[in-house]
Design goal:
Elements: H1 2-8, H2 14-24, E1 38-39, H3 56-63, E2 67-72, E3 75-80, H4 82-93, H5 104-109
Antiparallel strand pairs: 1-3, 2-3
Amino acid sequence: MSSRSERSTVPFTAPERELLRRELCRHFGEDPAITDGIFLRTWRGGERRNTPKIPPAVKTMLDRGLMEVRATNQGPRAFFTEAGLDALRLLVLDRRAMDPKRFAHLRAELGLDV
């Protein structure tokens, strides 16, 4: 019964957790920084040309105020809001959701391993 109540406090849906694991894990030998945001592709043609493609998992986080989209020199990116950073802290503290060794860089960046 306690596991059910713990799951209800998980701040992200299963597709959101999967996206975060994929985007925030080590790529090409480098740990991504939360402050760099999540890269978003852009539409190359049609009416939406040059606007960001928003994956469904990012859209639900945008809708709940956990992320916001900003233009950068490297293209559009999704950044965590303060509420999103608080939710990410909770997620990273859950050892089952985010392996502490694999995501140690996130724990350090969020100030959880002091």
